[in-house]
């Protein structure tokens, strides 16, 4: 619990994956990728119940062997490339009702820690926010990103104020949602059907080195080389 409110954590892991086939079961430092997320969630004291949402029997079996509850098999229509994460999370919450807050944890963030999960939930409670997500420093500042027209000329995606210089140290901080932790009040999530909303969602900053998001074999190999 956090602030007297019950917390359900949902690990989402479908069987299909185009960038890295069977990525949720890919070996990462001697264990299936999904094991790292299960272990982090199990060590997070604020989580009252941890469940898996998957359509894949092998993933379900692996999660259960690691001590993660898998009370159902996800419907095929919620396991397609186009299925929205919020629909998957709400489906899981509807199947195991009675919780105030839901936390979405994706296996593709294996370097996220129990401390990161706890810090995101604590921030949400302390700020009185309806949701909180983990973020990290953006690898490229939005002011430094351009589009190119048919003639090859550049124009900025985001206009930089004239009084700000071009040096990186002159630019205001910029962050990206890193995909490691999403926490939301369930009533708020059901009403708005979005895990993150501008002006409402609190942001917990994670170190860049723990913010890896594995989608391809190259991502997996890069994460393997991480000193963390």
Instruction: Give the full name of the CATH homologous superfamily of the largest domain.
Output: Spore Coat Polysaccharide Biosynthesis Protein SpsA, Chain A
Number of helical regions: 6
Gyration radius, in Å: 19 Å
What is the succession of H and E elements?
Answer: EEEHEHHEHEEEEHEH
Which percent band covers the strand fraction? 15-25%
Helical/strand content category: alpha/beta
Name the strands of the widest sheet in spatial order.
Answer: 4-1-5-9-6-10
Q: Main beta sheet: strand number and arrangement?
A: 6 strands, mixed
What is the annotated CATH architecture of the largest domain? Alpha-Beta Complex
**Total domains, how many?**
2
Helix content: 25-40%
Tally the beta strands: 10
The mean pLDDT is 92
Low-pLDDT residue intervals, each spanning 5 or more residues: none
Shape: globular
And the CATH topology of the largest domain? Answer: Spore Coat Polysaccharide Biosynthesis Protein SpsA, Chain A
Q: What is the CATH level 1 assignment of the largest domain?
A: Alpha Beta
Question: What is the rounded distance between the termini?
Answer: 29 Å
Description:
With 228 residues, this protein is α/β, with parallel strands linked by helices. It folds into two domains: 7-138 and 175-224, Spore Coat Polysaccharide Biosynthesis Protein SpsA, Chain A; 139-173, no CATH class. It has helices at residues 33-42, 57-65, 85-95, 114-127, 186-192, 217-224, and strands spanning 7-12, 27-28, 31-32, 49-53, 101-105, 131-137, 146-148, 154-156, 175-185, 201-205. The strands form three sheets. Strands 4-1-5-9-6-10 form a six-stranded mixed beta sheet, with helices on both faces. The protein has a two-stranded antiparallel ribbon with strand order 2-3. Strands 7-8 form a two-stranded antiparallel ribbon. The chain is globular and about 55 Å long. The two termini are 29 Å apart.
């Amino acid at each position: 619990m956090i602030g007297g409110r019950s917390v359900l954590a949902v690990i989402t892991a479908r069987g299909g994956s185009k960038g890295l086939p069977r990525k949720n079961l890919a070996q990462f430092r001697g264990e299936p990728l999904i094991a790292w997320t299960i272990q982090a969630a199990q060590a997070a004291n604020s989580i009252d119940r941890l469940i898996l949402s998957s359509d894949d029997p092998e993933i379900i079996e692996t999660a259960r062997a690691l001590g993660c509850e898998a009370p159902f098999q996800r419907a095929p229509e919620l396991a397609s490339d186009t299925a929205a994460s919020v629909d998957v999370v709400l489906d899981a919450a509807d199947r195991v009702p009675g919780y105030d807050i839901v936390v979405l944890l994706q296996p593709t963030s294996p370097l996220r820690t129990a401390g990161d999960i706890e810090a995101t939930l604590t921030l949400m409670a302390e700020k009185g926010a309806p949701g909180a997500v983990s973020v990290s420093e953006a690898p490229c500042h939005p002011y430094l990103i351009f589009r190119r027209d048919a003639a090859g000329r550049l124009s900025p995606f985001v206009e930089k104020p004239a009084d700000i210089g071009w040096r990186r140290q002159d630019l205001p901080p910029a962050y990206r949602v890193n995909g490691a932790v999403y926490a939301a009040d369930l009533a708020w999530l059901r009403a708005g059907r979005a895990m993150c909303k501008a002006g409402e969602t609190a942001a917990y900053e994670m170190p860049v080195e723990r913010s890896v998001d594995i989608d391809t074999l190259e991502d997996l190999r890069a994460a393997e080389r991480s000193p963390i």
